[in-house]
Amino acid sequence: MSHTLAELAEHVGGKVEGDEACVIDNVASLISAEHSQISFYASGKHNQALVDTNAGAVILSTQHVDLSPTNSIVVENPQLAFALIAEKLNLPEKLSGIHKDASVDPTASIDPSAYVGAQSVVAAGAEIKSGVMIGASCTIGKDCVVGENSLLHANVTLNDKTIIGNDALIHSGAVIGSDGFGFANDQGRWVRIPQLGKVVIGDDVEVGANTTIDRGALDDTVIGNGVKLDNQIQIAHNVIIGDHTAIAGCVGIAGSTVIGRYCTIAGGVGITGQLEIADNVHITATSLVTQSISQSGAYSSGTPLQENAKWQRNFVRFRQLDDMAKRLKRIEKKFDNK
Amino acid sequence: MSHTLAELAEHVGGKVEGDEACVIDNVASLISAEHSQISFYASGKHNQALVDTNAGAVILSTQHVDLSPTNSIVVENPQLAFALIAEKLNLPEKLSGIHKDASVDPTASIDPSAYVGAQSVVAAGAEIKSGVMIGASCTIGKDCVVGENSLLHANVTLNDKTIIGNDALIHSGAVIGSDGFGFANDQGRWVRIPQLGKVVIGDDVEVGANTTIDRGALDDTVIGNGVKLDNQIQIAHNVIIGDHTAIAGCVGIAGSTVIGRYCTIAGGVGITGQLEIADNVHITATSLVTQSISQSGAYSSGTPLQENAKWQRNFVRFRQLDDMAKRLKRIEKKFDNK
Amino acid sequence: MSHTLAELAEHVGGKVEGDEACVIDNVASLISAEHSQISFYASGKHNQALVDTNAGAVILSTQHVDLSPTNSIVVENPQLAFALIAEKLNLPEKLSGIHKDASVDPTASIDPSAYVGAQSVVAAGAEIKSGVMIGASCTIGKDCVVGENSLLHANVTLNDKTIIGNDALIHSGAVIGSDGFGFANDQGRWVRIPQLGKVVIGDDVEVGANTTIDRGALDDTVIGNGVKLDNQIQIAHNVIIGDHTAIAGCVGIAGSTVIGRYCTIAGGVGITGQLEIADNVHITATSLVTQSISQSGAYSSGTPLQENAKWQRNFVRFRQLDDMAKRLKRIEKKFDNK
């Protein structure tokens, strides 16, 4: 899909410096871009890549426009403009209809503009709205709803009654609506508590590959609008995630925890159950959160990487930390009393 | 499915206070329950929710019966009774037969009372016993056995020769019987050691969504009776897990480790290989276990979450911990010798 | 598949001590081996298992040959010889053709010697080379290439344009080529950056069950030759992994990080984005890597497991570590100045 620089600039509310008629057919990095491609320059770093680029045009902000060796689109937020232009130049192929090798229950409702891929299953009572694309080998359980223009890549599983909003992007291997992990204990033996809630996902949500979201026990698990979930995340029953929060890969969130809006949670973080995390909280990689956080801000836990031999010595000393603290206090007291 | 309070009380060995003929059709939380629903009250907390409930009945223990504003079922363990009543009111739909869009090898043995869902594959020599439900898009490998009344949700993969006991509940995306991660090293190049064992799972086991259990290298990987595994757990080759142990999400257990009975392992814990963990061991979230544990009890590792700026200072100091310990000792020695 | 000891010894360049005509039909552990089976003995430990074995033959090195109670194959690296012999005795069944319940696009190219299993999907333009085995319920996206003799177990997903080299072994639930996690921020709202690169995997690579590898944003995500990836690993967009590096389960590697050759990364490690890790780096279990590593060697982070009550005291003290360091310095200064 090709566009002139003028069209692309208009799409992002930018201003062209140079040849407005220049035709662009795709995006590329500054280093690999060719003359028919557009790239972007965001920070003050990598000056040289900008100066040396063979791109047909570069997206950048006013303060860097003099560095551009080629046509430019000048905007306030070059990365955002790049995202929008990259999307415009790479619109996904639109299909509609039901693949002959799909298995669709006669009571499911599939909008004529939607697509269901090969070997996919749509169970009884499910509702697939307009513009939805369901890739190959997906399973849509009973009474699920998939909102308008949502895209499910191959091999997504929605268990019964899952509700997906509009404009979702769900990646392969994701499982939404699996049972929560809830048991009563009968003299050592675990007895399942039936998981009767569902998963409700808002609009414009992304769910990464092999991420799992459990259904609620009685009430629902809720993912807000604009939430972005990376791969291999585990979200337990009755978790609530606020709008526009982004969570990186391998995070685990235990049952009934409520996460605020506009949070960012980095990779590998663990959050225990029944907590409340405020809006605008940012947690760094592999931190463990065991208490509620009521103030916005950045939080961390963990210890630094070291050469194994040095680490080993500090590792062992950690066992004495409380003892060391007490001994230090004793010395201070004696010393300061003299 | 509706039952009178008398019927439900009898099912859990409880005693009705109030109207035995009251008809209940489902469970709900104290806050959201309506008059045709039953709820439960376990702890001494949330008094107000109990006092304000609109539930038709509440399950509770003798000491709280006076707080109930409605009919009650009085039992010793309200949570357990709730689990059993919730199950009775929500019996899963029973299907039998093979969906027309399933692919079943003629040498597989499917009990007439079992069900195989759409797009599922049952390979040669597999045995599906009575009352089994296999959801959509499952793959049952060669010579697998699935025990009586087990339920596999959509998109479960059993690799060849996997043995599942009776009454299993296996969630979507689970992979059981994948190869263990075993290699010999040939001058830097890794050479696979064929993984020839299998996975053997006992009765009444739950396996969470996207959990993986590798087959043994020579002998088998063994999951005991009543074991409950949450989502996204990784169990390596030749691990043995004792009966009635429960493991939360995102735990990884490395090769040949043996876990005892009645253990609980919280989310995100890592356990290295070749260890032995005793019965009744409880490990808190995201701990790392690198040595065997021979005594029952609770164990932990890790450091606390802090505001990033404060954490950064302590994080850096960890590198000096051994040095600090030595310096403290030196000061103590000098001081006490004076 | 049976072979004489002479044939097996020749296969691994070893020397038979004992009966060269002894017929072996499989491998087993020293403890469980029967007379038709061969086992191996690598370390100086478990002497007794060797002395007591009923195996028909044992693979070992010169220094242990006197301990063998039976026929021996003497080699330099017994574990390597065992791997090669185990493979020779357990060659996987070779199938070819397209299962009647597979769904193959007419524009896909499937070599006649390749196999596509039941309920699998091969999309338009995909190329499946000679000797490839694709298990049941796999999805091969558009324009993917699967190299010669690669084996995909059941339920593998390759998203569009993924390139797999020769001799790959890919386990169930793996997702290769999912979108990277990349967004621009528009006043709090996340806007997707289209992920336009692909995943390119070298020869002789293993990918574990439920492991995810994201496609690059603009350029590609690259997995080198001989790389071995265990289960539940997350590899983000534009990561590059050097040849012959092995990564254990549950590791997460964030975007654009470059890992060297011949590295080993133990289970549960987290590596943040944009880092460079040198060749021959070895990282121990659940370490967090937040800075580049330029020197080969072993690296670790983390704190030791303790009984919960003792740990709790040290855990709390970690918050004071910087303060303790300063107080210690003050005392030292005062003391040494006296």
Any overview of this molecule?
The structure is a homotrimer of 338-residue chains. Chain A is of the alpha/beta class. Chain A folds into three domains: 3-89, MurE/MurF, N-terminal domain (Udp-n-acetylmuramoylalanyl-d-glutamate--2,6- Diaminopimelate Ligase, Chain: A, domain 1, 3-Layer(aba) Sandwich); 97-299, UDP N-Acetylglucosamine Acyltransferase, domain 1 (3 Solenoid); 308-337. In chain A, 16% of the residues lie in helices and 29% in strands. In chain A, the strands form six sheets. An eleven-stranded parallel beta sheet of chain A has the order 8-11-14-17-20-25-28-31-34-37-39, with no helix packed on it. A ten-stranded parallel beta sheet of chain A has the order 9-12-15-18-21-26-29-32-35-38, with no helix packed on it. Chain A has a nine-stranded parallel beta sheet with strand order 10-13-16-19-24-27-30-33-36, with no helix packed on it. The longest helix of chain A has 17 residues, at 321-337. In chain A, 59% of the residues are buried. The model of chain A has no long low-confidence stretch (mean pLDDT 96). Chains in contact: A-B, A-C, B-C. Chains A and B meet through β22, β23, β38, β39 and α4 of A and β4, α3, β40, α4 and α5 of B. β40 of chain A pairs antiparallel with β39 (297-300) of chain C, so a sheet runs across the interface.
